Each structure stands twice: as C-alpha cells, then as structure tokens.
Amino acid sequence: MRSAREFADVTLDAWGVTSRRDDLLLCVSELATNALLHGVPPGRGYRLRLLRFEGVVRVEVHDSGPGLPRRSGRNTSAEHGRGLFLVEALADRWGVGARTPGKVVWSEFDA
Q1: Cα(73)–Cα(85) distance, rounded to whole angstroms?
Q2: I need a labelling partner for 59 at 20 to 30 A (CA). Which of 78, 91, 92, 108 fits?
Q3: What is the pLDDT of residue 79?
Q4: pLDDT tens by residue, 14-34
C-alpha cells in the first residue's frame, strides 16, 4: 500500500490538492489494502485511479476478485476489519461499481 499512497501523494501535489489530504491518503491505503487482501486472485493485481472533477477528488480501486466488499462487525478494538468504516466516516460518498471481472470500490471527497 506504500506505493499506492506515494502515487496518490505525488498526484495530489501535482494537482495542488491540499484540502483533506490526510483523509484522501488514508482512504487510498484502506481501499488498496482491501483489494489486496480480499479482491485480488493469485497472480493478479489491482488498479488505483485518482480522478479530479470540479470540486471533487475521486479515488477508485479496481480489482478482479469475486464478491462485494462488506463491513465486518463494529468491534472498535479489533485490529482488522475497520477499513470500510474509516472510508465511510472520512469520505463524502463511497460505493461499489461493477466491472468484468471484479468490481470498483470508490470514494469521493468534496474539495
């Protein structure tokens, strides 16, 4: 996930995005981690896309694995399983889109 955060950091610098930067980078890390742990079959990778629209930065993580992401129970003391709760809390919007094969998990931040 380090390379995903570095890519996002460099891209946000190039775009001059300073607002909510830490939230964006944390969501990049969480979504990339989820893709690697749950959405990438052996021998495959994932794609991170950052998109900038007027007043919005969108983070997309594409994977080729089956199934949809789901939030686990709300055990706040657990070491794992809180990634989507963080994304939901930090992003203005998030969701899942279909792709063949796999899915796109995205989050958006109003800048």
Answers
A1: 10
A2: 78
A3: 52
A4: 999 999 999 999 999 999 999
Whether the predicted model's global pTM rises above the 0.85 cut: yes
Per-residue exposure over 67-92, b if at least 16 CB sit within 10 Å of its own CB, e if not: eebeeeeeeeeeeeebbbeebeebbe
Query: Phi and psi of 79, rounded to 5°?
Result: -80, -20
Largest CA distance in the chain: 38
- C-alpha distances (whole Å) from 14 to each of 7, 8, 10, 47 are 11, 10, 6, 20
**Which is nearest to 50 in space by CA: 100, 6, 101?**
6
Helix, coil or strand: residue 68:
coil
